[in-house]
Design brief:
2 copies of one chain form a homodimer. In chain A, strand 1 and strand 2 form a beta hairpin. With about 130 residues, chain A is an alpha+beta fold. The first copy, chain A, has 2 domains: about 60 residues, Arc Repressor Mutant, subunit A, CATH 1.10.10; about 50 residues, Dna Ligase, domain 1 (2-Layer Sandwich). Chain A is built from 5 helices and 5 strands, in the order αααββββαβα. Chains A and B meet through helix 4, strand 5 and helix 5 of A and helix 4, strand 5 and helix 5 of B. Strand 5 of chain A pairs antiparallel with strand 5 of chain B. Chain A binds a DNA duplex (30 and 30 nucleotides) through helix 1 and helix 3.
DNA sequence: ATGATAGTGATAATCATTATCATTATTAAG
DNA sequence: CTTAATAATGATAATGATTATCACTATCAT
């Protein structure tokens, strides 16, 4: 990888993200890792989230307030619930999403992110 | 509409957004409307973009830096180009996107936004 | 071992977005 | 046509997430 040296902090951030199924913000990860790395700096978390994202190891989910991150993106289809404001994972047939693109599109697609808006099953019950 | 009074500024913001096919930020709209409303405040633009969005008249496209807005969303499928950083519209078969949802999903979907990442046709040519 | 360079922690700086507030515009009712 | 209620505005201060900076440390190829 182009000019990247390994770092315990970066590894820990990636492992943290891969070991959970919610979509934390930089700050959430920061407080979480403070237990293992008391000297950890918030700036380091932000820095490495950017690096990990550009390496394609995690994805960024733009939220209303802060950026959220996801380290388990075999599927990255999300629903933001307008009631409880949570961002939940959705199972989606990715094949069909790709097929929705016109055949003559001549750009280059490396990934995609499908975001649904509405109510999560929990809130839909009222 | 619940407790909304009409305002020239809000109308102008909506018309501006509907009359263009790029995806401007609040600031871009602000400078654009300054010509017609010299006294316009940036806060007014931000305020009304929020109102218009919650009324479902425009959509918000989270960008890398600032929020972008779109007033022509018969389709709201976008590609963010990793090279030129532009956000361009894509023609997409929305039917197939909806079909990608599992039949037994019991939440409620009101809208969706499909974002592709990669290179726009222009940048793909190098 | 060592030199080159990427990474870190601390903190200041940035800057998009919000909140506040006195004033003005809009609207419905008398 | 007043008037009272309240939403909207413009100006600006405040907020808060993200970045930049910098002195120092860790990593790694040679």
């Amino acid at each position: 990888m182009a000019g990247l040296k390994s770092s315990k902090q970066r590894d820990a951030i990636l492992r943290n993200l891969q070991g959970r199924y919610d979509h934390p913000t930089a700050e959430t990860i920061y407080f979480d890792l403070k237990k293992d790395f008391p000297a950890l700096s918030l700036a380091t978390v932000y820095r490495n989230l950017k690096v990990l994202e550009s390496e394609g190891l995690i994805i960024r989910i733009p939220g209303n307030d802060a950026e959220h991150y996801d380290g388990n993106f075999h599927n990255h289809y999300h629903l933001t619930c307008r009631h409880c404001k949570n961002i939940i994972d959705l199972e989606v047939n990715g094949e069909e999403v790709i097929n929705a693109l016109p055949a003559d599109f001549d750009g280059e697609i490396t990934s995609h992110s499908l975001m649904f808006f509405g109510l999560c099953p929990e809130c839909a019950k009222h």
